[in-house]
Amino acid sequence: MSWRYKAGLFLIAAVVIISVTSEEVSQLLHLFSGFLIEAAELGIESANDLSPQVEGRPLIRRRKDDFNVLKHDKALTRREIATYGFYIAPIWFVTEVIAN
């Protein structure tokens, strides 16, 4: 093989690596900036909404006949977490493939 052929292959590989890397970096920066914006908005809203009179009281009153209340006292087991992960992983994979 001539040196021109090898140089051309090297340049093609360099362009592919640079383009893939820049795409991944731009996706991460976009995701990170979105998280920062959400965190800033939540911090501003929570700082403005809290007053000394409201801090000790719950925001939602619970009644005994309310059956639509989520139960937060039960912790997830490792098996349940793994099961949920196996349900979510294929969906995530398909969305990533479709997005790219």
Structure, briefly:
This protein is mostly helical and 100 residues long.
Amino-to-carboxy terminus distance: 35 Å
Average pLDDT across residues? 77
Mind summarizing the main beta sheet?
none
User: How does the helix and strand content classify structurally?
Assistant: mainly alpha
Supply Rg.
25 Å
Characterise the protein shown here:
- The chain is mostly helical.
- The chain has helices at 3-49, 78-99.
- It has one domain (3-99).
- It is elongated and about 80 Å long.
- It is built from two helices and no strands.
- It starts with a helix and ends with a helix.
Secondary structure layout plus pairing:
Elements: H1 3-49, H2 78-99
Summary tags:
mainly alpha; elongated; 0% strand; 100 residues
